[in-house]
């Protein structure tokens, strides 16, 4: 181990649309913050990021902009994303002077240009060597699946920006689907529902809280009613209204149908031997979307397959990327090949 190695650190990053998680080699997950940045509009200087920036969301004045540089699992604002990655890395690096190797999980449907943007951002933030891994592959490793085995496994990873569905065997993805319908789209559907049905304008944070509290994919044993505060579209004044979990389920239904349809399409394209494996082993759901009440039950009803929600689904991707950074040689064949231009 050289002196340079002693002062450098290896990281695994799940650069999510909703949250960024960082795993430091030898230490585990050290950061789990919202992928949100607050910056000065004039100087572009970052004022706050992560949870502190999220608290400012929807409450900022005209000199401050609160932005989410990640959209649909990929970089939407290159400059701000780079600043965010740099700041998060600096936060977790402690005594290390530099970052040597980084493994970053990306959506399996990301284009070459999008992958390159993520790679470049990490390099500009100081990483010497950047490796990319597909999110469903990383999630599978994170929940303890032996991805090298000649056995088929199906993963549904529902994040903030994308839903990734993949059948994995022999360290590779046999077939995959990546759709840009996930947590954010569900929040948007709730916002639209209030606008249309209650004449109320609610913010993204409120929609997210409603989804987590009463959102569901199947009827609940006991339906819940909650109070929601927003701005009256007609009078322009603050207003409170009551909604039930039945209405919210209706609002989310379109997004859920689209996810279920893509799961079915992926199954239709799966080779028969692997289909038999999936029937035996079931489907695993990871990502924040896995926490939506009754989603596993809904997919089970629609596909007639056993469906399981992974333990701690929110950290599955970063745990997998962490295992890869801990043993890069062993997992080298699951990484995305880098195309030179």
Overview of this structure, please?
The protein is 38% helix and 29% strand. With 341 residues, it is an alpha+beta fold. The protein folds into 3 domains: 3-139 and 316-334, Nucleotidyltransferase, domain 5 (2-Layer Sandwich); 146-181 and 253-314, Nucleotidyltransferase, domain 5 (2-Layer Sandwich); 183-251, Actin, Chain A, domain 4, CATH 3.90.640. The strands form 5 sheets. Strands 3-2-1-9-10 form a 5-stranded mixed beta sheet. A 5-stranded mixed beta sheet has the order 13-12-11-17-18, sandwiched between helices. Helix 6 (183-198) packs antiparallel against helix 8. The longest helix is centred in the C-terminal third of the chain and has 24 residues, at 245-268. It is flat, with a radius of gyration of 21 Å. The two termini are 33 Å apart.
Task: Pick out its properties.
5-stranded mixed β-sheet, Nucleotidyltransferase, domain 5, 11 helices, single chain, 341 residues, 18 strands, flat, Actin, Chain A, domain 4, alpha+beta
């Amino acid at each position: 181990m050289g002196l340079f190695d002693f002062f450098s650190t290896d990281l695994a990053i799940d650069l999510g649309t909703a949250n960024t998680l960082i795993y430091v080699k030898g230490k585990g997950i050290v950061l789990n913050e919202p992928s949100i940045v607050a910056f000065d509009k004039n100087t572009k200087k970052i004022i706050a990021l992560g949870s502190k920036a999220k608290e400012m969301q929807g409450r900022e004045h005209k000199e401050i902009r609160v932005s989410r540089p990640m959209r649909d699992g990929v970089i939407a604002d290159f400059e701000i994303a780079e600043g965010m990655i740099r700041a998060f890395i600096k936060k977790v690096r402690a005594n290390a002077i530099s970052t040597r190797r980084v493994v970053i999980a990306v959506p399996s449907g990301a284009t070459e240009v999008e992958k390159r943007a993520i790679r470049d951002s990490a390099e500009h933030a100081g990483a010497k060597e950047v490796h990319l891994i597909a999110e469903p592959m990383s999630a599978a490793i994170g929940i303890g699946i032996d991805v090298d085995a000649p056995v088929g496994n199906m993963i549904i990873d529902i994040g903030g920006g994308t839903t990734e569905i993949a059948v994995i065997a022999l360290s590779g993805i046999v077939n995959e689907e990546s759709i840009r319908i996930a947590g954010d789209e569900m929040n948007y559907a709730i916002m639209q529902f209030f606008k249309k049905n209650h004449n109320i304008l609610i913010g993204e944070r409120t929609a997210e809280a409603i989804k987590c509290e009463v959102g569901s994919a199947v009827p609940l044993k006991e339906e819940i009613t909650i109070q929601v505060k927003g701005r009256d579209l007609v009078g322009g004044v603050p207003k409170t209204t009551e909604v039930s979990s039945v209405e919210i389920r209706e609002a989310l239904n379109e997004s859920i149908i689209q996810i279920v349809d893509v799961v079915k399409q992926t199954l239709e394209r799966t080779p028969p031997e692997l289909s038999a494996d999936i029937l035996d082993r079931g489907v695993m759901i990871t990502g924040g979307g896995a926490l939506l009440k009754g989603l596993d039950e809904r997919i089970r009803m629609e596909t007639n397959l056993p469906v399981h929600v992974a333990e701690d689904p929110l950290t599955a991707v970063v745990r997998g990327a962490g295992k890869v950074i801990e043993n890069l040689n062993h997992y080298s064949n699951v990484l995305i090949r880098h195309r030179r231009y």
